[in-house]
């Protein structure tokens, strides 16, 4: 194995000085434009060569901290060379006065001798007194040279007195100078600043600084989303990222006056193992950050999906044990982020012991005169309350009775008290006590079930159990999904965080916190016979992820194993396992099937089998979708779930009507005629004869009334092309109804116009009248909260639809431009799947197409279906992040199902090709040319 190159081997600064000096023979003015241009060219060559060398070394040794140190060293040497050239050849002073001195100082992250490839270069030009023309010129030369090299430079020019004064009032300046490092120039100036900063700024202000930095950290976390488990994390600013480690370093350096984090071991803050963990976290995060900057060529800090796969490859991850390489890499990242949280907790506990971190709910007036002692808890000798936070009565509590590791969290939930950092630190250091014996302990399992199903805030306690490592040790199956990400755009959090958030959503439903958003789930929850079944099923519903087998099936197996341990009966265990196995069913049926098709409802009812299970599955599905991420659950999905529930309930309750189809059609016609106020009997009769049977069976009465008035107005006006826009705020969609001459590509044209307008279609209903018109209703995702704004947007979309149907707009070119403007995310590769099924509906063949979403997809699919001489009765469009699932209920031109296997194969082939749109056609053309 080759030896690690020394820092000085990366750049030969003396040779570089000689090269630059050679450009100024016989004392030539180095500031001449021609010479300056050559200086810049040489510096660019050297910088590009050294950066390429540093990147190659990173790929070879994968040492992120060393990469950051190498980049810093190269930057140091270049600044020193530029400074020397400036004072020797551009602005030489033969007899410098005492004012013509300067210390070039690295501050901020650069002051720690670490740089990422795209980091800012933070410099302080330190002067003895006020600025002089010479100093101003030298600073300007250095800065312009660095800017011309393509560097982003943060800089300040101040004297020592100004630095001290500004440090007292500005926390950012104080932190920058805290990390100041002498680079070049007058060492004495820097030493003077360091001494005065220490004696006049730092001393006696430790508590103030710590409080400010921790508040700054909390605000930064809030801006970044408040969770360390976001699937596209900010590697620098996010919770658990590099900035959190740097905050610990700043505080340590400020309060403990250490120059190296290793000194914190001697101060009793970290154990040696915890310090090694600090180094491992720092090493990993620096490696990821440096690779990100090298790959993108910019200071990219967000670890987005399109970067994750490439960084995983650079770091050497491979597919293994059911996890893709990118998922293994991101699991490592989230475990590191969790470790950073643990280290922060331990560090804050040490600060509190030193009485420099403010304690919450502390009555400072009382404490001024009396020393408060921890208060014992009634009925517990193991725990006490110290300043309204739960802690241990002695350091051997958990060793004496390991059940107390679970009881600790149960007591916190029961008494509604926060956790003391000392106790949490002891918990993390006692995880080895959670063994097979404790997992089978009846009392421990009873306590855990109480925590999981608490009526207080179960997610808060579960999250703390997870962060300390207790949850993953007590439930090993949960431990396997800790920090596990799902490499898709649908899920916003890691699996463990999603499971805990789903418990929070269920708790909110039970407390009645969402009566307007979730009216059905809220009304059903009080009637649930055994609420604990729901909590446990939600806790387990995704616990089988990351395995080769389908996660729903794996999760059901885990439920059958775990539930008896938690004290559930065989019947209760069976219900929980069923909920876990079927947890996706209701969502998929609601979003991907025609809920007006009786076969859909019958099949779903056969799966559910009982009203109680229907109730449980509805609530579980709502909580699950809401926990996926912000905005994933919306009014339209809620409406679909409610419709499915209300349609299925009569089947399960035995109250489904047995009247014939013709009788139901006649009843619907009579119901509408009775609702058409101001219509003559002749007009009513003529109108009902315009619709075929499917219309009467599939459209609800309010919409039938609205559409009758719409068609009547269009007919009176002599229009055969008309549109109507209705914003539906509660469902979160806008309904656009189109009346036009029927033709095979009508839905395709409407879909294309919506794609050009940037409108996302979520559902479509298609009906033909007996006089040759088509009545198509599409539902597009709502964009504006205000109905007026949404109405205007809907009018713009409908106007574009009308112009397109009138032949005034050309769609293919516009859709192609739209696709080029929003290319598919290169990070994702999904197989395209086409299912042609005749068993999902009694009257229609159902075509389900799924794969990677793209602009104009629905347009291309509906156009292909029309070209295949198929009639579309309804279309149901769902997107799950980058994955599109489009479902079409179709017949042939005679109104019958498709029953020819050869034709089904043709449909699959044509739709796969249509799914890939222009790109596939271009590939075919290129292949043909070759």
TrEMBL record:
UniProt keyword annotation of Magnesium present: yes
Cross-referenced InterPro entries: ACT-like_dom_sf, ACT_dom, HD/PDEase_dom, HD_domain, NT_sf, PII_UdlTrfase/GS_AdlTrfase, UTase/UR
Gene3D superfamilies reported for this sequence: 3.30.70.260, Beta Polymerase, domain 2, cca-adding enzyme, domain 2
Domain of life: Bacteria
Matching SMART domains: HDc
PROSITE patterns from the UniProt entry: ACT (PS51671), HD (PS51831)
A biological-process GO annotation: regulation of nitrogen utilization
Alphabetically ordered keywords of this record: Hydrolase, Magnesium, Multifunctional enzyme, Nucleotidyltransferase, Repeat, Transferase
Gene Ontology molecular function, alphabetical: [protein-PII] uridylyltransferase activity; phosphoric diester hydrolase activity
EC number(s) recorded for this UniProt protein: 2.7.7.59, 3.1.4.-
Ways its activity is controlled: Uridylyltransferase (UTase) activity is inhibited by glutamine, while glutamine activates uridylyl-removing (UR) activity.
Domain ACT: 735-817, 846-927
Domain HD: 495-617
Entry cofactors: Mg(2+)
Chain intervals for the UniProt region annotation (Uridylyltransferase): 1-376
Keyword Transmembrane: no
Regions annotated as coiled coil: none
Catalytic reactions of this protein: [protein-PII]-L-tyrosine + UTP = [protein-PII]-uridylyl-L-tyrosine + diphosphate; [protein-PII]-uridylyl-L-tyrosine + H2O = [protein-PII]-L-tyrosine + UMP + H(+)
The record's note on its domains: Has four distinct domains: an N-terminal nucleotidyltransferase (NT) domain responsible for UTase activity, a central HD domain that encodes UR activity, and two C-terminal ACT domains that seem to have a role in glutamine sensing.
Function statement: Modifies, by uridylylation and deuridylylation, the PII regulatory proteins (GlnB and homologs), in response to the nitrogen status of the cell that GlnD senses through the glutamine level. Under low glutamine levels, catalyzes the conversion of the PII proteins and UTP to PII-UMP and PPi, while under higher glutamine levels, GlnD hydrolyzes PII-UMP to PII and UMP (deuridylylation). Thus, controls uridylylation state and activity of the PII proteins, and plays an important role in the regulation of nitrogen metabolism.
Family to which the UniProt record says this protein belongs: Belongs to the GlnD family.
HAMAP family: PII_uridylyl_transf
Protein name according to UniProt: Bifunctional uridylyltransferase/uridylyl-removing enzyme
Taxon lineage: Bacteria, Pseudomonadati, Pseudomonadota, Alphaproteobacteria, Hyphomicrobiales
């Amino acid at each position: 194995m080759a030896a690690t190159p020394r820092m000085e081997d990366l750049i030969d600064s003396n040779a570089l000085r000689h090269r630059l000096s050679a450009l100024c023979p016989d004392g030539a003015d180095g500031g001449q434009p021609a010479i300056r241009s050559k200086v810049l060219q040489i510096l660019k060559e050297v910088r590009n060569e050294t950066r390429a060398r540093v990147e190659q070394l990173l790929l070879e040794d994968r040492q992120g901290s060393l990469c950051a140190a190498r980049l810093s060293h190269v930057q140091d040497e270049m600044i020193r060379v530029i400074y020397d050239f400036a004072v020797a050849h551009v602005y030489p002073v033969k007899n410098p006065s005492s004012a013509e001195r300067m210390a070039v100082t690295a501050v901020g992250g650069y002051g720690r001798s670490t740089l990422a490839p795209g980091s800012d270069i933070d410099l302080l030009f330190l002067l003895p007194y006020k600025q002089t023309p010479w100093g101003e010129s030298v600073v300007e030369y250095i800065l312009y040279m660095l800017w011309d090299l393509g560097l982003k430079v943060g800089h300040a020019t101040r004297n020592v007195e100004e630095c001290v004064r500004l440090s007292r009032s500005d926390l950012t300046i104080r932190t920058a100078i805290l990390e100041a490092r002498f680079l070049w120039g007058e060492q004495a100036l820097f030493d003077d600043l360091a001494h005065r900063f220490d004696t006049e700024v730092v001393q006696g202000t430790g508590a103030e600084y710590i409080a400010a930095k921790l508040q700054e950290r909390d605000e930064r976390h809030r801006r970044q989303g408040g969770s360390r488990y976001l699937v596209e994390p900010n590697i620098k600013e996010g919770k658990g990222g590099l900035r959190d480690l740097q905050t610990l370093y700043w505080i340590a350096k400020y309060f403990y006056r250490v120059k190296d984090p290793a000194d914190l071991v001697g101060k009793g803050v970290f154990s040696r193992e915890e310090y090694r963990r600090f180094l491992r976290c720092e090493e990993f995060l620096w490696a990821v950050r440096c690779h990100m900057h090298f790959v993108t060529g910019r200071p990219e800090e967000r670890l987005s999906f399109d970067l994750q796969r490439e960084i995983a490859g650079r770091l050497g991850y491979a597919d293994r044990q059911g996890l893709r390489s990118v998922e293994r890499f991101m699991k490592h990242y989230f475990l590191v982020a969790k470790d950073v949280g643990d280290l922060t907790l331990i560090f804050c506990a040490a600060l509190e012991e030193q009485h420099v971190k403010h304690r919450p709910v502390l009555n400072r007036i009382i404490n001024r005169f009396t020393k408060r002692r921890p208060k014992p808890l009634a009925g517990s000798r193991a725990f006490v309350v110290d300043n309204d936070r739960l802690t241990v009565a002695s350091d051997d509590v958990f060793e004496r009775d390991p059940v107390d590791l679970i009881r600790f969290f149960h007591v916190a939930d029961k008494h509604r008290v926060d956790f003391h950092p000392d106790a949490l630190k002891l918990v993390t250091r006692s995880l080895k006590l959670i063994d097979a014996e404790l997992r089978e302990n009846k009392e421990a399992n009873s306590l855990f079930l109480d925590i999981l199903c608490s009526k207080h805030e179960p997610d808060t306690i579960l999250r703390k159990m997870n962060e300390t490592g207790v949850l993953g040790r007590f439930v090993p199956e949960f431990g396997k999904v800790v920090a596990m990400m799902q490499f898709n755009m649908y899920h916003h959090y890691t699996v463990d965080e999603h499971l805990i958030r789903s418990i929070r959503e269920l708790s909110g439903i039970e407390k009645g916190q969402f009566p307007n958003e979730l009216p059905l789930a809220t009304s059903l929850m009080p009637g649930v016979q055994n609420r604990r079944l729901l909590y446990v099923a939600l806790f387990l519903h995704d616990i089988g992820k990351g395995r080769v087998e389908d996660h729903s099936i794996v999760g059901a197996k885990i439920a059958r194993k775990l539930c008896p341990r938690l004290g559930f009966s065989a019947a209760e265990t069976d219900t929980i396992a069923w909920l876990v196995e079927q947890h996706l069913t209701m969502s998929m049926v609601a979003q991907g099937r025609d809920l007006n098709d009786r076969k859909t409802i019958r099949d779903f009812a056969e799966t559910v089998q009982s009203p109680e299970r229907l109730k449980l599955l509805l609530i579980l599905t709502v909580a699950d979708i809401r926990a996926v991420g912000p905005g994933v659950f919306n009014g339209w999905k809620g409406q679909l779930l409610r419709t499915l529930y209300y349609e299925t309930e009569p089947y399960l309750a035995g109250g489904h009507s047995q009247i014939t189809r013709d009788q139901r059609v006649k009843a619907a016609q009579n119901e509408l005629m009775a609702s058409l106020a101001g219509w003559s009997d002749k007009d009513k009769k003529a109108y009902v004869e315009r619709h075929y049977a499917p219309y009467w069976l599939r459209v609800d009465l309010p919409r039938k009334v609205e559409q009758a008035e719409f068609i009547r107005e269009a007919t009176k006006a002599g229009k055969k092309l008309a549109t109507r826009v209705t914003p539906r705020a509660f469902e979160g969609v806008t309904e656009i109804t189109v009346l036009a001459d029927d033709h095979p590509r009508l839905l395709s044209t409407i879909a294309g116009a919506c794609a050009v307008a940037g409108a996302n279609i979520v559902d479509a209903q298609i009906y033909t009248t007996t006089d040759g018109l088509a009545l198509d209703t599409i539902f597009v995702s709502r964009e504006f909260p205000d109905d007026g704004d949404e109405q205007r947007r809907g009018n713009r979309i409908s106007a574009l639809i009308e112009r397109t149907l009138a032949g005034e707009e050309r769609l293919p070119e516009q859709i192609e431009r739209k696709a080029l403007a929003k290319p598919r995310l290169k990070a994702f590769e999904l197989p395209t799947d086409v299912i042609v099924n005749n068993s999902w509906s009694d009257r229609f063949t159902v075509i389900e197409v799924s794969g990677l979403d793209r602009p104009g997809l629905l347009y291309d699919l509906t156009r292909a279906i029309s070209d295949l001489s198929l009639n579309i009765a309804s279309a149901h469009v769902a997107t799950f992040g980058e994955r599109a699932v489009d479902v079409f209920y179709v017949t042939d031109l005679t109104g019958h199902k498709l029953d020819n296997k050869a034709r089904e194969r043709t449909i699959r082939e044509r739709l796969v090709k249509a799914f890939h749109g222009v790109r596939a056609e271009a590939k075919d053309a290129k292949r043909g040319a070759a």
